[in-house]
Amino acid sequence: MPEGHSIHRLARQFTALFVDEELAVSSPQGRFAAGASRLHGHSLVSALAHGKQLFLRFDNDLVLRIHLGLYGAWTFGGDSTTFSGSIGAPRRTADTGQGAEAAQPPYAGPPEPVGAVRVRLVSRRGWADLRGPTACVVITPREEALALARLGPDPLQESADPVAFVTRLRSSATPIGVQLMNQAVIAGIGNVYRAEVLFLQGISPWRPGKAVPESEALAAWEDAVRLMQDGVREGRIITTTPSARDGLTAGTAPHYVYKRTGEPCRRCGTAIASTLLAARTVYWCPECQRR
Ligand SMILES: [Zn+2]
Question: How many angstroms does the Cα of residue 257 sit away from the middle of ligand 1?
């Protein structure tokens, strides 16, 4: 599932491509035809990412709320100023990998829709296709406010309140490895960031939230901010420092514990362990994360 950094990249992309542009909105697949007709011909005012949710605000006071879930992805294309490619679940499309540096023919509008395109947005300069989302609904600003109120603070927002995260985490005996996946506690963390943040802090995924000292909870938040900002910049999740990756062959996952079951810990050499926690596989070093 795309973690929060991907959704923030999407918000930037929508802002660059579509704000103040009158948009043709359609549902080539048909499943979102009614919703698309309510947005068609209107302009995008702003794009907000909060955790794993994307809110596209239109000038007729309606909001398109998107949750990509496990399988959703956006594909973009357009003129030479437009990013071309996909953000979200990996998929093959005609446009993926088309580099901006490659010579492009003049933009002559979007291609024929390929596959089940739930919604297509088209401006004068480019287009965006959404496939396979968990949620794609038109809501009101009041409904947007309610949806945001249900989400915890997002480490990628400058205005985010770390104290809200710390308070929520420490108010419950639920293991921190479960709480980090709860979007009401902290928004945007997924399975990769969960594993890597806990490793960096030397915290066991099973430690009850209320047993995490304030200072360690704040340090975990700061790690999440730093790692997720790196993710937005790089377009992928890299958690290790160059020295920790020393000697690794190209293509090795650039993580400390995520998807490294049985491999030696980069700090102590102990075999990395894994098991299910909160419905997803959690990875940890049994030596470095005893507490
Ligand atoms: Zn270790």
Answer: 9
Query: Ligand 1 center to residue 191 CA distance, Å?
Result: 19
**Residues noted as catalytic:** 2-3, 52, 280
Q: Is 156 within the bounds of a domain?
A: no
* Distance in Å, CA 246 to ligand 1 centroid: 16
**How far apart are the CA of 226 and the centre of ligand 1, in A?**
21
Mean pLDDT (whole number) for 25-51 = 98
How far away, in angstroms, is 99 Cα from ligand 1 center? Answer: 39
Does the pLDDT value for residue 8 go beyond 70?
Answer: yes
Last residue of a domain, one of 126, 149, 172: 149
Domain of 104 in residue numbering reads as 4-149
| Both tokens assigned to 47 | 């794009």
For the ranges 58-62, 196-200, 254-258, which has the lowest average pLDDT?
Answer: 254-258
> Tens digits of per-residue pLDDT, 247-285?
655 556 689 999 999 999 999 999 999 999 988 999 999
Helix (H) or strand (E) holding 165: helix 162-170
Distances (CA, A) of 143 to 61, 64, 140, 148: 11, 11, 5, 9
Same domain, 186 and 223: yes
Residue 95 confidence (pLDDT): 43
Structure tokens at 121: 């947005």
Residues 195 and 263 in one domain: yes
The last residue of a domain, from among 149, 172, 193: 149
Nearest-5° angle of CA 280, CA 282, CA 284? 175
Amino acid, single-letter form, for residue 125 = R
Residue 94: predicted pLDDT: 42
- Confidence class for position 108, pLDDT limits 50, 70, 90: confident
